[in-house]
DNA sequence: GTCTATATGGTGATAGAC
DNA sequence: GTCTATCACCATATAGAC
């Protein structure tokens, strides 16, 4: 299956995605390695070592290193998208919708830091156009996916500006500045062991506040 | 010479740094390659090809690929630092100093995008700790250099807050958000051929405005 | 100072045993 | 489904000709 997940019926009778464990294990080990060393510097043997296995296992499930990468990329995008999805069509003023999706996005950047960084590198790779001809098509698809995601934010801040709640000039420039700010924790945030939920949300609030004001939002955030 | 530059007397009798051209040519070709494909994915042959030479030339001037990278990193940091240096001790309110250095920093990100990206990757590499034991020491030194640079901004926004011109909670989190926003053009800005100075400064102003407001700055920027 | 070999090790990928 | 063994290739770095 191209998706890497099958639909299975649980004991509760709910149909939900249940990945075959081998594949997800590989995906997560790969995500760790790609985050730590980057795609190019990571060897398939590295991933295998992390798994406590040899590369035979990996090549049985993924035809190539590039496919392994796109697998992680897709998995990461799914998680990011899923966090925002419930709120993207929330009724009411656009600015309130923005607050919600910006917040869950930022929390997701911290909670799924590893996957988020691989997604980031994938976008970077695509922007540089440094992939082989055929991989380009695959990666282009995934970047399309990711562009659809950023469009959610673009439309939202645009609408909020129309409604008089935000104030900025060029949308394209502004949405980039905003995203970079919201994504920033993937580069410096280090998850700690006994970390409270409040600690994470506290950091996220500050980042979202920065972006909120940057967009020209008035008053307090009250997340 | 460890610096890669000799002091030479020009025909005007002024002593100024004159890099031996071979070295700088290599440095710039390497910067191009590192930006386009990243450090790990760039081979020394790639750099040589870009130079229209073979790797013998490169290894005559740089002992290793890693040294080539740190050479580019240092060169990039020098340029970035040099742009801000004239204003870092400017008298007057800290907020005015911030406006100046934030603006020249952002313009520099666009004008020296290639070098700026290599510096970025160097910092990233260091944060990941993905270098060999001995390179670590060298890179650590350079990251120290780069940290000193970001401290300029940290102190400035901190002081501006004390003077009542900025308003934010945690300095560490805020300075990261701010830097990410100011650095954002290195990922999406594409220099065009007949580009006017106004076009570049126009983009920079919008980015700096976003950051200024994000920091809690009041009123207009008036750069 | 730059080039043309070349030594040496690692990497992606495959074949076949179990 | 996973492992071992192996191939072909590419990359870093060096040695020595010019």
SSE order of chain A, one letter for each helix or strand: EEHHHHHHHHHH
CATH class value of the largest domain in chain A: Mainly Alpha
Oligomer: homodimer
Rg of chain A (CA only): 19 Å
Through-space gap between termini of chain A: 41 Å
Strand order of the largest sheet of chain A: 1-2
| Count of β-strands of chain A | 2
Which protein chains make the most extensive interface, counting residues with beta carbons within 8 Å of the other chain's beta carbons? Answer: A-B, 36 and 37 residues
Give a topology summary.
2 copies of one chain form a homodimer.
Chain A: E1 6-9, E2 15-18, H1 21-37, H2 44-51, H3 55-61, H4 65-84, H5 94-111, H6 113-128, H7 133-162, H8 171-183, H9 185-188, H10 197-214
Antiparallel strand pairs in A: 1-2
Helix pairs in contact in A: 1-2, 1-4, 1-6, 4-5, 4-6, 4-7, 5-6, 5-7, 5-10, 7-8, 8-10
The structure holds a DNA duplex (18 and 18 nucleotides).
Task: Describe the 3D structure.
Chain A has 223 residues and is mainly alpha-helical. The first copy, chain A, folds into two domains: 1-62, Homeodomain-like (Arc Repressor Mutant, subunit A, Orthogonal Bundle), CATH 1.10.10; 64-223, Tetracycline Repressor, domain 2, CATH 1.10.357.10. Chain A has ten helices and two strands, in the order ββαααααααααα. Chain A has helices at residues 21-37, 44-51, 55-61, 65-84, 94-111, 113-128, 133-162, 171-183, 185-188, 197-214, and strands spanning 6-9, 15-18. The model of chain A is unreliable at 1-16 (pLDDT under 50).
């Amino acid at each position: 299956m191209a998706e890497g997940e099958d639909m299975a019926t649980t004991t509760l009778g709910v149909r939900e995605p249940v990945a075959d464990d081998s594949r997800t294990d590989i995906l997560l080990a790969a995500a760790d390695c790609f985050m730590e060393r980057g795609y190019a510097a990571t060897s398939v043997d590295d991933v295998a070592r992390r798994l406590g296995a040899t590369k035979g296992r990996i090549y049985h499930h993924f035809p190539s290193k590039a496919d392994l990468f796109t697998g992680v990329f897709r998995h990461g995008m799914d998680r990011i998208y899923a966090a925002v999805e419930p709120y993207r069509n929330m009724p009411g003023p656009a600015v309130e919708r923005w607050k919600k999706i910006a917040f869950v996005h930022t929390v997701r950047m911290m909670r799924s830091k590893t996957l988020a960084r691989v997604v980031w590198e994938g976008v970077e790779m695509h922007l540089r156009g440094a992939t082989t001809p055929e991989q380009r098509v695959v990666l282009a698809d995934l970047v399309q996916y990711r562009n659809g995601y950023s469009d959610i934010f673009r439309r939202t801040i645009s609408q909020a500006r129309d409604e008089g709640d935000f104030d900025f000039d060029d949308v394209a420039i502004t949405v980039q500045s905003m995203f970079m700010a919201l994504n920033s924790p993937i580069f410096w945030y280090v998850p700690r062991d006994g970390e409270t939920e409040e600690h994470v949300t506290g950091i996220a609030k500050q980042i979202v506040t920065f972006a909120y004001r940057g967009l020209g939002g008035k008053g307090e955030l009250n997340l």
